[in-house]
Amino acid sequence: MSDHDRNPTTLRLRVYGDVAEFETERHLEWFFWHTVLAQMGLTPLKSQYNCREGVCDILARGANKELVIIELKNTQDSHVVEQITAYFDALIDERPFDEQIDYSQPIALYTICPSYSARTELTLKYHKLGLTLFTYSIIRWDAGFKFMLWQWPEPGEVLQVEIPAAPEVLPHLDLPDPPRSFVNLLGKCTDAEKHWAIRTRDQTYEFARNHKLKIAETPDGKWTRFERTKQYPIAELGWDNKRDELAIFLWLPFMTVNGQWNMGGPRSENFKKTAMMRLWIVNDQVTCLAYVENGRKSWLIVTKEEIETGKFSLPTKLRKWMQYTHSYWKGLAMPVQFYLETMELPDRADSLSSFVELALEHSLQRLRKSKSSPNQQASASLSNT
């Protein structure tokens, strides 16, 4: 009897308008084990299988008795290919279920994620193993929902599974009631923007709970700020009247303008700071970030595309800097890859959830640093200005 048969669970979803997601990876795994594997022509062997490289989500047998290793993710994960490759390396030696598997057949590797980054596609181009990537989504359908699975990056629908209205639907997990500013903000948002706002809130509280941190959700007029204290903000959400869209700001690691030439050197720590950054998001992916000088939300920051399309005229403060990277400190949004490479974060995914995680991790690092050295607490406070 499998682990899932001994310990059945109820499928649980979080719903954002007409789209939904599994509450946790455990619920995704349960759904895949009981519903999807059979429709893919796979026979389940073991869930949560321990090997020397970690814990494989699912092992299954294919139509030709080949071993199929399946790794499941509830959010985008830039390390999923690396992770499943490590499992392959372990299992080719360990040869589990030898009596049921024909190891003369190539081992199949399946990753199941809601989305992938462009860098994953590049990795796939040179990957030599039998790797197949799938994406999925859950949409509202009749009285319930529909799970849809595609191959990636070449579009090709694999299957659809209808989910009846029976599953328990959770908009959030044991969270305090949001302030009126947050509720009013959701009333202006598109379905996608609601998803981003609610997920940012959920992720912040979940991180705080896991690390036993206190989080304040502070209304500031029509804005809502998430912070440990006033000196340690993490995120701020509100409405951008100039663009008529949701605005998400995160406090992220950044550097002084001179730091771009000094990162990686012996004095690189001298140029690091914590900065308020505005995010531009398309299809759950962060495309641009902008440094907000002195935390002034009213300060006009623009993307290159907005200038080229005439949505905004070129701000005076940018005119002499447009040909230089200095412009990214003067009000021009930087491409996400410039930020990741400059901050030496090449493996960081460019999804919104990945950047929220970065802001939360950075906040935790600052907290630990301030506790280890009382003298550093004052300087950490000054870095927000």
Characterization of the model:
- The chain has helices at 3-6, 25-39, 80-94, 118-126, 180-188, 191-210, 304-308, 336-342, 352-372, 374-382, and strands spanning 12-16, 19-22, 43-51, 54-61, 67-72, 108-113, 130-141, 144-152, 156-163, 168-169, 216-220, 223-227, 233-240, 245-255, 272-282, 285-291, 334-335.
- It is of the alpha+beta class and 385 residues long.
- The protein folds into two domains: 3-169, Trna Endonuclease, Chain: A, domain 1 (3-Layer(aba) Sandwich), CATH 3.40.1350.10; 180-382, no CATH class.
- Strands 1, 2, 3, 4, 5, 6, 7, 8, 9 and 10 form a ten-stranded mixed β-sheet that branches. A seven-stranded antiparallel β-sheet has the order 11-12-13-14-15-16-17.
- A hairpin with a 3-residue loop joins strand 8 (144-152) and strand 9.
- Helix 6 (191-210) packs parallel to helix 9 (352-372).
- The model is unreliable at 5-9 and 376-385 (pLDDT under 50).
Kindly name the structural category.
Answer: alpha+beta
Could you give the count of β-strands? 17
Write down the overall mean pLDDT: 84
Low-pLDDT segments? 5-9, 376-385
Q: What's the gyration radius in Å?
A: 23 Å
